[in-house]
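Support request from a user on the community tier.

User writes: "When I paste my structure tokens into the form, the page sometimes reloads and wipes my input. The last time it worked, I copied everything first. Here is what I submitted, just in case something in the input itself triggers the reload:"
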């Protein structure tokens, strides 16, 4: 990875104060270039990015993300080059993403990438000489959608701290949700999950919310009587503490109080049909009838769009519907992000590590050595990228001292693995946390044996 270049692969590549700075710049663009008739729409242009070029590299369909990025760059006075159809680009000839971004880095000053594989943005960042912005990579993340979502709430005067945010639909496959829940937790909102059956948050996202973003989860039996639609509830860290200051209020009552409160935001998502074979029969459908309970009276309804039946069109004229404004804010938000990224002197390029930059140890081996990422949709399993990826994992401290491996590309976790020594050709060699340059990880003992390793008998804790 070229040093000093700023990439936005995850929402966690931005600090909270940087996110707020992007919002301030976006507010300024709306103030100075906004359409007087439609306050959420940019109606004029500037020359802030004159002479600069944005490349759109889209390997998956897109309307809002690509066109709002391109509109943003044109409104900034810059220019765009677009590759939006893999069938007409060199992918069709078998070119890797890694080679494509190396080449396109010479044609543009910033690249926005969309790709069907989880972790593609991080791989691209390893090969690019200009900033990569993740426009959605598989089911991993969609950080700029989250910027639009949070900015929309700010424009609606909804302050994230202690906001009750309900999220429904395909929480497993929606990359927008994965970026969104991290950001909500970081800004102190309460997250109420209402997944379609079998489409709960991925285990690694749930674990991160609890272990890294300090969310407290509330056991189902504590709220199911009150609100059976909610499947999981994440409470922000200081909430129980604040409430415990009220005499005679224990956590159970506190949760009851919270759930009797109104829902401030309802975020709807579509079934991600391109990622799963079929939807469960009872995919939640949100309409005026659903939202007629008193707790939804002042709810802002958001959706990243496109909608395909899960959000009734009759809501479009409802004052609680915010989703078309949310899509419009894609332009000022992306103007702000591009502006800050390309103006390195006072922009985001002086980034110093981001939210999630705690000292982490990297395990980095050739992809022919030991274990690969366990997520079958990870970019490391893309046949075109096999010469460009390595077996790279962050060593993460897990529960009760056990170590977890996090793929640096798709950020999914592996908890079960076997530790081996490549010099001695032995496995089960040491407890967690004692790794050396000769350490190799295998998925299981069988894989280690097949690679010619002998059992040393010292299993992980
Ligand atoms: C989202 C995406 O591509 O992940 N669309 C968007 O960028 N607004 C949501 C979706 O496709 O469901």
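"...and here is what came back when it finally went through:"
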């Amino acid at each position: 990875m070229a040093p000093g270049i700023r990439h936005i692969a995850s929402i966690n590549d931005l600090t909270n104060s940087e996110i707020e700075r992007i919002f301030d710049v976006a507010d300024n663009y709306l103030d100075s270039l906004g359409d007087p008739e439609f306050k959420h729409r940019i109606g004029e242009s500037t020359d802030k990015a004159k002479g600069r070029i944005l490349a759109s590299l889209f390997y998956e369909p897109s309307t809002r993300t690509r066109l709002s990025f391109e509109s943003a760059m044109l409104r900034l006075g810059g220019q765009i080059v677009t590759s939006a159809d893999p069938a007409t680009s060199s992918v069709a000839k078998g070119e890797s993403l890694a080679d494509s971004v190396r080449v396109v880095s010479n044609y543009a000053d910033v690249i926005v990438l969309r790709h069907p594989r989880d972790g593609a943005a991080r791989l691209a960042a390893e090969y690019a000489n200009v900033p990569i912005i993740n426009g959605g990579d598989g089911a991993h993340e969609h950080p700029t959608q989250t910027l639009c979502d949070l900015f929309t709430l700010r424009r609606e005067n909804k302050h994230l701290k202690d906001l009750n945010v309900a999220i429904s639909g395909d929480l497993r496959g929606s990359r927008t949700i994965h970026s969104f829940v991290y950001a909500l937790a970081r800004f102190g909102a309460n997250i109420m999950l209402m997944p379609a059956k079998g489409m709960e948050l991925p285990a690694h996202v749930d674990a991160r919310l609890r272990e890294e973003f300090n969310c407290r989860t509330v056991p189902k039996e504590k709220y199911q009587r009150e609100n059976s639609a909610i499947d999981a509830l994440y409470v922000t860290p200081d909430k129980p503490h604040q409430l415990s200051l009220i005499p005679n209020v224990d956590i159970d009552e506190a949760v009851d109080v919270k759930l009797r409160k109104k829902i401030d935001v309802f975020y709807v998502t579509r079934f991600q049909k391109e990622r799963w074979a079929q939807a469960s029969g009872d995919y939640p459908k949100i309409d005026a009838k659903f939202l007629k309970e008193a707790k939804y009276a002042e709810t802002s309804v958001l959706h990243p769009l496109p909608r395909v039946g899960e959000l009734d069109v009759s809501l479009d004229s409802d004052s609680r519907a915010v989703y078309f404004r949310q899509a419009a804010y894609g332009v000022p938000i992306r103007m702000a992000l591009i502006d800050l990224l390309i103006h390195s002197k006072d922009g985001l390029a002086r980034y110093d590590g981001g939210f999630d930059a705690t000292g982490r140890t990297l395990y980095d081996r050739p992809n022919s050595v030991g274990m690969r990422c366990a997520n079958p949709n990870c970019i490391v399993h893309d046949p075109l990228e096999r010469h460009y990826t390595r077996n790279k994992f962050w060593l993460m401290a897990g529960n009760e001292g056990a170590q977890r491996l996090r793929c640096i590309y798709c950020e999914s976790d592996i908890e079960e693995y076997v530790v081996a020594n490549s010099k001695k050709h032995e496995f089960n060699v040491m407890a967690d946390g004692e790794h050396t340059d000769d350490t190799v990880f295998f998925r299981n003992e069988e894989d280690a044996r097949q690679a010619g390793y002998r059992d040393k008998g010292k299993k992980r804790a």
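Agent notes: The reload is a front-end session timeout and is unrelated to the input. The pocket of N-carbamoyl-L-aspartate is lined by residues 64-65, 136, 142, 145, 175-176, 269-270, 304-305 (CB under 6 Å). The chain is about 25% helix and 20% strand. Escalated to web team.
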